[in-house]
Amino acid sequence: MAFFLKNKAAMLQIYLLTFVATVQAHSRLLPGSCNFESNTCGYTSDADFTSWVLHRDGHFVAMEAVNDDVEGSSGSDIEPKKEVLGLLLSPFLEHDEWSCMRLVYQITESAHLEVLQRNEGRSFDKPLWSSQAPSDSWVIASVDLQNSSEPFRIVINGRAGPSAGSSVAVFEIHISPGYCLECDFEEPHLCGYNNQWNVNVNWYVGGGGVQLPYNNMPDDHTYHNKTGHFMYVDSSYTKTFREVAKLVSPMATMPLSGCLSFQYQRSEERGNLFSVFTRDRLGQYQELWRAGLENRVDFSSAPGEWIHVQVDLKAPYSVQVVFEVGFNSPRGGHVALDDISFSPEFCSTDTEPTFDPSIANCDFESGLCLYTQDRAIGSSWRRVSVKPNIFRNGDHTTGAGSFLLAHSWLGPRSGYVSSVISPTLPGNTKFCLRFYFSLRGFNQTEQALAVYLLQQGGKREKIWTQAEKSTGIWILADVTFQTSQPAK
What we know:
By secondary structure, this protein is mainly beta. It is 5% helix and 37% strand. It has one helix spanning 2-25, and strands spanning 44-45, 53-55, 60-64, 84-89, 99-108, 112-119, 126-131, 139-145, 152-160, 167-177, 194-196, 204-207, 229-234, 243-248, 256-267, 272-280, 285-290, 307-315, 319-327, 334-343, 372-373, 382-384, 403-405, 420-421, 429-437, 449-454, 460-466, 475-483. The strands form eight sheets. A five-stranded antiparallel beta sheet has the order 1-4-9-6-7, with no helix packed on it. The longest helix has 24 residues, at 2-25. It is elongated.
């Protein structure tokens, strides 16, 4: 035991300098939090199992394997050491809102640590998180606690294996409102986010009044000053054509469905890619969002504004969120990230104003509605009305109303284009575009009529096209599309 305490105390000297400040930074800790400085805050050991011991000098609770060998009945044989089990039970908790428990722990040798949730009247405890990976220092685990209308208890299940020195220790239990994905990077533990190490490019903590000589870092978004913190990555040490830096969230321990939000700044000199993915326990990736070429600022002159991003996240199983930046050269620029949050409501119905798709509807009976024309790339569409006759149908709405007409003049003219543009449609939403068209003519072309998505920055994506047909009748077209960025 003396050897055990000596090792723990040595590690705590370093850890206390950083993590104690973390606790003080929080204005609101929920019941069930404990730093084990002088007592166990209502946590008790289950009397049917091995007891957890409070070490006041080191401010932690621990349980370990029995050191004494037990002699067999013959007096000559020695029974092998056995695994010992200890349950540490929290007081009854009532959390009406989603919360996040951060567990600071250490496992040595062949020990095992598990966190469960116990509700009265239920036959089994609900597993939330577990680990049996030994470590040489304190480790932080993030465990989601789903909102519950019933009182419950947290069960910390420690198992010390038969090998010598096997032990489990808990330094702090820290429960705060919100989701474990959320982070403003103002605390030393960075909410459990980890940089996936790369030899040349990595995510670092920025701000805190520190300015690097080779760039002009922005104010953080949380406090809007130089003392706040954020995460950043730059391309200064890029060596190969494709260098990737990954910032990975803790693994969600509950299914998540809602709106993921974050703030970022981005500069681009000779190319970088900024994307957000989910990654499940099997290592499979799914892209949630990607920054467009227009979403960038120039850090070298003056820091720009933080850009707010909202993206729907649907994860019926445990996932991590991965913020990934790829560089192609040492002049690939920078990316800064701050204030990650999560809402249980989807972005389109909660955090963003409700969008009415009817603003993009138009029958052209009394004008162009909210549609506009791009006169820079060609001639205009004209709103016309004709009486139906044997040579031409009237409009589709009433037969005698108005419609838009575009045509090429007589004579060989190439590259003749007329464009009409809808109002802006929000990103991350699926739409069905329905319209009626009529094509007439003798000179057949492969793309007489086309529909594009026009994103910010001028990027165009073709989503539908129709070759010219000399039918002269109204034809119905349905086009389903979705875009990650606002588009027209």
